[in-house]
Amino acid sequence: METYIGDINMKTEIIKVNPNNIDISRVKKAARVIKGGGLVAFPTETVYGLGADALNDKAVAKIFEAKKRPLGDPLIVHISKKEDLFKLAKEISNTAMELIGKFWPGPLTVVLKKSDIVPYIVTAGLDTVAIRMPANQIALTLIKEAQTPISAPSANLFGRPSPTTSQHVLDDLEGKVDLIIDGGKTDIGLESTVLDLTQDVPSVLRPGGVSMEKLQGVIKTIHLFKSQDKIFSPGMYPRHYSPKAKVILIDENDRIEVEKVRKLAYDFILQGYSVGIIAKEENKEKYSEFNVKSLGPGDDLIKCAANLFSILRDFDRFSVDVIISESVKEEELGLAIMDRLRKAAG
Ligand code: TXA
Ligand code: MG
Is the pTM value of this prediction over 0.90? Predict the structure, then answer.
């Protein structure tokens, strides 16, 4: 997986922008960096993105270089108004229009046939392009001021958990990105749902911020991509979102879950490993003798989603060897949470 281009080293500037009172001159500065072919990390409602001018293939190449991302993994193009979809994509169905009407701006990425202006480096050589309009004022202002669509993957090193704060971005990409806009902690904390609309049956390639249940309110039949399916999205690597520690997911949300987690934790500790436990809030005290972090109440999946990636990164800072995680129920955002935990577990 060494198809990136090399190493770079630059000074990374950080500018703070208050999402509730945007200082436009600061965002304009970031927009000039994008226009000039540079890299800007910026907050979206899901996670921080690592942005470049999507129509400038040299600028886009820097994204792959900075992240050490394989060139075969396509990027999402971010737009600031729905009409821009028509410049970037073609054969846009009524279903696509309906979904966009309902979920944009927001954490839904649609995959459609690409138009000629989208460079192949963005789509990893595919004739389809992934597009979304984020629901974050800083992101929208940046795209608008840059006067160009912005291609942006999550602003982490390839394979690591996505960043939900500017500090996470700095930890992974200092010296590799020109500028980071610090707009505070992201709201959702998990990436967008990627929905392929180029097949007969719409297919969720990656569960995310817009749940299956919500999508089914608009389209009845949706296919959910499973890891055993033929991989037609190059980015659907089985092992991803990984902290440095080994992750073990106790993939059952049942009465003996706590017992299993405790037993495994003791097994590893007796072998001399340091262990971190991710527990639902209601179970946390049952692990009081361990290094335990609460994901959030098991019935508050929104909170659990928001905490997941920063917990994985926190355990890295503690140099934990093994992370043992409880499960959450696989409905609404829980589907995306379990997807990320399974991929972290590899
Ligand atoms: O919430 C998000 O989606 C964040 C923020 C920054 O917008 N972005 C993000 O990007 O998570 P990234 O690159 O980490 O994930 C994009 C996913 C990858 O799994 C990629 O393979 C898939 O979307 N993708 C992109 N273009 C595609 C295409 N043309 N066909 C199929 N899958 C595609
Ligand atoms: Mg990513």
Answer: yes
